[in-house]
Every structure is written in structure tokens, then in C-alpha cells.
Amino acid sequence: DVKVTQSSRYLVKRTGEKVFLECVQDMDHENMFWYRQDPGLGLRLIYFSYDVKMKEKGDIPEGYSVSREKKERFSLILESASTNQTSMYLCASSLLFGDRGPQPQHFGDGTRLSIL
Amino acid sequence: AQKVTQAQTEISVVEKEDVTLDCVYETRDTTYYLFWYKQPPSGELVFLIRRNSFDEQNEISGRYSWNFQKSTSSFNFTITASQVVDSAVYFCALSESLYFTGNQFYFGTGTSLTVIP
User: Fold this and answer.
1) Half-sphere exposure (CA, 13 Å, Cβ side) for B19?
2) Do A96 and A103 meet the contact criterion of CB atoms below 8 Å apart?
3) Fewer CB within 10 A of the end CB, N or C, for chain A?
4) Residue A55 half-sphere exposure, CB side, CA atoms within 13 Å?
5) Over the stretch A19-68, which tens digit does the pLDDT of each residue have?
6) Does B91 contact A at CB distance below 8 Å?
7) Mode of pairing for the β-strands spanning A10-13 and A111-115
8) In this predicted model, what pLDDT tens digit does every residue of A66-77 receive, in sequence order?
9) Residue A1 contacts by C-beta under 8 Å, 6 or more apart in sequence?
10) Nearest C-alpha of chain B: how many angstroms from A110?
């Protein structure tokens, strides 16, 4: 089974702090994704990566950056945390788009981040 | 514009009732893929099904069935004889044909299903 592991289940930080959310997958997937989930808004894509050191902006990249130095690890960085970044953050991974089309994304358990 | 619409925000049913979760999508591509995910209270989204735009045959997996209709741009999900363990948030997602890597999904806002014992 695919395992996507997020470093923290719950995290509390203060406004202005630099926050790192870590995600590791063990299935050698090329694609990795970061979403945030808010009530009534569903899942919104922040950034994704299809290869080491490659990154693409999603729908809501403002205030975030990412890092992918190794294939199995994808980090989300909040440069200067603000209260409106309080949310559930979900990491996902998938195989590369292939002949059979986009592959299912496999998700971690999520990190519930509170910014005070 | 929202690419995937799940108009039902919350649904409650009594155990053993059948329930249908609606999903309407919007795309200009002729090749696209649709997905359903389940998010139980524990939080992890669990993949349920993938369907491509060329296959309109309905699919059944145990108590779960999916009805794909291109004419109405809908991909509805039915749970037959619901159980308490079916209580979760269900998400529908769309992935359009891409000519580069990335595999971006567009998720609906989810339907929260509560099955009452």
C-alpha cells in the first residue's frame, strides 16, 4: 500500500513565524501535491511537483513556497504565517500521468495547523 | 468558475436507506477523468474510483455504484443499504487531459454524509 506520511497531525504556531510542513511518500511517485482544506471550500491546490527540484503553482500559492530536494519528500513552507493560513493541510502523491491517464492521488492524514 | 459542483452540502439518512451523492462537472476537453474519494473522520482521503470520459458504462462495487452520464455532465455515486461506517465526507474530482506532467485535480466542495443508526 502507498504510504504518505505528514510530519505532524496538529501544529500550533504564531503569526509571523516561518512554518515547515513535511511530507514523505514511500512509493517512488513522481508527482506530489499540497492542498489546503477549508469548510465549504473543499480542497484547493497550493503547489505541486512532478520531479525533484520542479514545482508548479496551484490555485492559491500566495504566502507559500515549496521545496523538493528528494523524490520522496515535499515540503510546504509558510514564509511568514498569518491567521488566515489556519487550515487543514493535505499532502498527496501519484504516479506520473501515463498512457492510462492521470493516476489516483494518495493522501496523507493531514496536518491541522493553527496560527495564533 | 467551479469545475466540479457538489450541490449537496450535508445529507443524513437512516441506516439501510439508499443514498445518492450528486456530482456535476464542467470541462471543454473531450478526454478527462473523474474520481470519487471518501474522507472518514480520521481525515485521510481514500480513493474510491476513477472513470475516463470514453467509458460511460456504470460501475458497481459491492454496495457502491456510479452513474456516469456525459449528456448531463454528471457522475453520481449511490450507496445502497447504507451503514454507519459510510459516514464521511465524499469528494468528486475532475482531471483534464494534460500534455505535460502534473496531473492536477479539481475537487468539489464535498458532501458530508451522516448515516444514523
Assistant:
1) 23
2) yes
3) N
4) 19
5) 999 999 999 999 999 999 998 899 999 999 988 988 999 989 999 999 99
6) yes
7) parallel
8) 999 999 999 999
9) none
10) 6
Environment class of B69 (CB within 10 Å of its CB; exposed 0-12, middle 13-18, buried 19+): exposed
For residue B45, which amino acid is it?
Answer: L
State the pairing for strand pair B88-96/B111-116. antiparallel
As a whole number of angstroms, the distance between CA B65 and CA B43 comes to: 23
Say whether A101 and B31 touch across the interface (CB within 8 A). yes
Query: What chain B residue is nearest to A36 in terms of C-alpha separation?
Result: B107
Residue B31 has pLDDT above 90, yes or no: no
User: DSSP letter string over B49-60?
Assistant: EEEETT----EE
Contact B98 A102 (CB under 8 A): yes
Q: Is B102 within 8 Å of A31 when comparing Cβ atoms?
A: yes
The mean per-residue pLDDT over the stretch B18-25 comes to 97
Environment class of residue A29 by beta-carbon count within 10 Å: exposed (0-12), middle (13-18) or buried (19+)?
buried
Of residues B21, B3, B92, B94, the one with CA closest to residue B52: B94
| Strand, helix or coil for residue B77 | strand
Contacting residues of B for A36, CB less than 8 Å apart: none
